Queue: 3 jobs
Job 1
Amino acid sequence: MAKPEHEFFPVEKVEYTICPGDDPKIKERILAKDPDSGVATRILRYEPGADSTPNGVQIHDFWEEVYILEGSFTDLTLGETFTAGMYACRPPGMPHGPWRSEEGVTTFEVRYRV
């Protein structure tokens, strides 16, 4: 199967849900998801003070592209802070995170398999 077909719609109609890891300060708005592979297009939001350290370093078996819409967060492994307007393209197997955001951050993410 593939991600579903959607014509333009207000994304506010899609509720935020708590991400895996159960931190209520880290939420996602799934815009489209392939139920078979689990890959998705989403908006990710870290509220101020959110910290994904309990989830550890992330390594995926899919491609992930991330654009920071607003705010900033810090990759605690790299010791680098990334801000609005920055972009990442991560191939399968690329380690990243964990993350902490002092001010909060919102990202737009696309995940896919080749």
Job 2
Amino acid sequence: MFRSFSVFNYRVWFIGALVSNIGAWMQATALSWVVLTELTDNDAAAMGITMALQFAPPLLLVGVTGWVADRFERRRLLVVTQGLLLLIGVAIGILLLVGVMTLPLMYTFALALGVVAAFDNPARQAFVSDLVAREAASNAVALNAASFNGARMIGPALAGVVIVAVGTGWVFLVNGVTFFAMIIALWLIRTDELIPRVHAPGASRLADGFRYVARRPDLIVTFAMVFLVGAFGMNFPIFASTMAIEFGQEADGYGLLSSILAVGSLAGALLAARRDRARIRVVIGGTLLFAAAAAVSAFMPTYWAYAVTLMFTGFAVVTMLTTANGYVQTTTDPALRGRVLALYMAILMGGTPVGAPIVGWVADEWGPRAAILLGAVAAVVAFAIGATWLIVSGRLHRHEQRRFRLTIDETRPLTIVPPEEFSDQIAQTTPIRVPSDDRETGRRAS
């Protein structure tokens, strides 16, 4: 489960990311609560717009951000993006503390966060493959998810306590401090121990990533499922905050829901780390489990009953997304990995500008339970897409020996085999069998 920790660079990266992620979750919780309770009167639609502004840039800039992640040194690129995110967080905190923050101004900062994150996300995802060998990439991705969700257990609950105690502005300042952990970790990484980067032959073009994915139906199916779940099912800030208000909870109650969600998420990430490789069938199964868990949570009558179902929701969604991320990383041509991961992150995060305003509007008009059910329906559609592909591709079929039993073929990651250098010696000595008609040969010989 923890085999990637044997690499020094990954250990340093993991510790820095864990501290930084705690601050990031504190900021995300405070940002949602500020928009919902301080800048508006419980307006879930405004919260949806804020989320859309943060997640639209990765979709709109997908070609450029992926090319940048493949073209430039990722470690230095991450130092720049992390520094910019630090400055934006501190600026939001100061404006909140002096009492001049407005909703349009918060929209502007949300857009700025989205633009920087558009460059940060693909570089950060692809950098994992620079830290560990290819055979450990899936494990490293899963441990990254464990770090992300471990921080999710601490950050939202801590943010709720800080908001109640001293106000939301201080949460953003604390987040600014935690970015130093990531920046220091990036500088401590031993560059001579990084995995050598693979560069594509010829000029690096923005469209290469799109062409590559277009030739991979398995990736297209994965991206379609991730888009639907990301757009309509992963609007947890809207779900948790509006449900917390419905149950009569304050900011600490909302933060606790996010932390409880992370308990299941952490379990899903650790189980993913135990698997030897990522499989699409796990992505499909996780999608169905997410649909079931979300549907059940929508009917929970009490705060604590709803909180318990969130653990299953978190387990399902992280199982799906961590496996999908690992599959993309381990089966993609290394020379195009940054561009493909940028497209993956754009589809995952870029679905939010489409789904979040709709989900927020549904929550305002028919209540948060209807919004949660909308996410469950989207997950059912995503599962149907994946299951249909399994059948059409021939992976799911009847068992050869048992008539009424189905079996799924093994979905191993595709092996990228680099071309061998041309050898005159091998070319001159390797026999090449040319099929011929023996009778025609005999006739010509006579």
Job 3
Amino acid sequence: MRAYERLLKYVTVRTPSDESSETVPSSACQFDLAHVLVQELKDLGVSDTRVDEQCYVYGHIPATPGYEDKTKLGFIAHMDTVSDFCDHEIVPVVTENYDGKDFVLGTSGRTISTETFKHLPDLKGRTLITSDGTTILGADDKAGIAEIMTMIERLNAENIPHGPLSIAFTPDEEIGTGASHFNVEEFGAEFGYTLDGDTEGEIQFENFNACKAVFEIEGINVHPGSSKDTMINASLVAMEINSMLPSGDTPRGTEDYEGFYHLVSMSGEVGHAELNYIVRDHDPAVFEVRQETLRHIEKLINEKWGAGTAKLTITQQYRNMSEVIDGCRHLIENAKKACENAGVTPLVLPIRGGTDGAQLSFKGLPCPNLGTGGHGYHGPYEHITAEGMDLAADITVELVKIYAQ
């Protein structure tokens, strides 16, 4: 099977993770895909495959005889998707020989436009895969799963010699906890790669330092007719807090290594309001300054409106894995060589986000990220091509060959 054929099967199993849940996994539906993948791995000869009680799938492929002393290499992808635009059946749409122009997504009223997605003309002639425009597609990260499965099938079919290989599929990556319960010892690899990036050929080992910041604002709600010098409108205070942040430091206004404050959600009335942010920066010193800025805003608000008006809670999420990967640069150099062997130009780019590999690197498994060939993740404009997935699978096969030398 080609990788995209597997993708078409996986995306119909909806697996949105749930940030509000306190269970592991955060949504039981992730087990539905996990059980499918366990059986598929067993069918591919990965006999020790299992899914544990927290929905982590593990499997191992013994080394080709004579290659037992080679590097123990691992490949990882995540099973969950975002919950946005994932509330009903996902219908993948396959368009052969795409013309590289604006693409209308069924009857949804949405269009993947060349004005927004500048790379679309480069996909001309390929087989384009989208949803019908009412849901996400789910290629993030089921494309990575499909490419790993395709790699395994090719190793078998082409009798490609290899060292010991480890495979894992994780839950809850999209809510930042995909690596929280990952058993590095059971995985058993010395080094790993996550397949969870965008364009084929992407190699990423510099991700954001990340935290979540929540402002809870307590107001004083009294009758508006007699509220002079008494009422404190929590919603207005929330607006004031947001106005104190640099207006250009948002995802829309930043790129490459530039960090941001991202207001993810807000709610409020006169008596109580809440602001939920994620804060990101590649530079650890600047990341700390961003957090100090938030703490200073909390202080100023409480000085102006009274102690206890604003309460800030900062929760650390992940760190920049370049701190770890810089000590094992062979992971990047070999990934670049694998791209070149597969006829793909390597694109070493910073991640404007995070992956399981960021946390895994600090748990003792250095783990950069590779592109899967997808674009427009986390919304109904998500798309990928069959040819891009083929190339991503080729790159993983070439990596296995390199580490077997």
